[in-house]
Amino acid sequence: MSDIPNDEPLSDSPAGFAKEQLVSFIERIERLEEEKQTIADDIKDVFAEAKGSGFDTKALREILRIRKQDADQRAEHEAIVDLYMQTLGMLGES
């Protein structure tokens, strides 16, 4: 038997409130997922436009990845890569 009196609407009960909250969360997440897809499509369009203008999209993605890094992290990574390249003889001697 239910603890909710028959005359009390479900939305006024604690279970009803939880259900409304759950539905609200799900709907908000669904809207955000739609927005995320729209943004992803917009980014794809910009890359296609850049490619159509002759830019190398792989290089653009690399630049974007690098720009997200902290300056100190980036400098440390670049120093390690340079050291490895010198060790492998991939850089010209100065």
UniProtKB/TrEMBL annotation:
Keywords: Coiled coil
Domain GapR-like DNA-binding: 18-89
Coiled coil (UniProt feature): 15-49
Entries under InterPro entries matching the protein: GapR-like, GapR-like_DNA-bd
Superkingdom of origin organism: Bacteria
NCBIfam families: PRK13694.1
Similarity comment: family membership: Belongs to the UPF0335 family.
Protein name: UPF0335 protein J2S75_004360
